[in-house]
Design goal:
6-stranded mixed β-sheet; 5-stranded mixed β-sheet
Length: 182
């Protein structure tokens, strides 16, 4: 019995020493998150205006694929299209622009991935959303959900930053009546 007590004490001492020396630093210290965000984070647009919003990514480690969904206020804005961003430029990719449901205020099943070998570490845009504001004033949140980003083998830790669009129906519309020639 004395011997097992000494062994336990020795193991506890060894573990404490290992933590102090930092040999378990990789286990104790978690990696920073990859950030997926709406860019610009907020903006004000006039009624009946087309504008673009990016879903941007700032990878903490090399990434290879992503998936995401978006919700918005369908009484204030409509999503016209979703196109592939520039984050995977230079690679052959597979891209799904998702399914837009302007009645429900969602875009689901957006994803992209690098085909074959390769990954990226540089910041970039995952997707570009082409949006039209409607004729009602108000603020629509642009909420990312079910977001996943992977490296070569697994999902990486992420943080999402949502955005907003304020529709100002009282903003003056600028109409260019100047002649096309002359």
């Amino acid at each position: 019995k004395k011997r097992s007590g000494k062994i336990r004490a020795g193991i506890v001492f060894f573990l404490i020493l290992m933590f102090k020396v930092g040999l378990f630093a990789g286990i104790v210290h978690a990696a920073d998150d990859t950030i997926v965000s709406i860019d610009p984070a907020s903006q004000t647009v006039a009624a009946s205006t087309d504008f673009e919003v990016n879903v941007s990514c700032s990878p903490d480690q090399p990434i290879k694929a992503y998936e995401l969904k978006l919700s918005f206020n369908a009484s204030l804005i409509q999503v016209n299209s979703v196109s592939e961003g520039d984050i995977f430029n230079g690679y052959e990719t597979f891209f799904s622009s998702g399914t837009i449901n302007n009645g429900a205020g969602t875009v689901i099943d957006i994803y992209g991935l690098i085909m074959g070998a390769g990954n990226v570490s540089a910041n970039g845009s995952l997707v570009v959303l082409n949006i039209t504001s409607l004729s009602t004033s108000g603020t629509s949140q642009l909420n990312l959900y079910d977001v996943g980003v992977t490296n070569e083998t697994e999902y990486v830790p992420i943080s999402t930053i949502n955005g907003s669009v304020e529709v100002d129906a009282s903003a003056p519309q600028i109409v260019d009546n100047s002649p096309s020639t002359g």
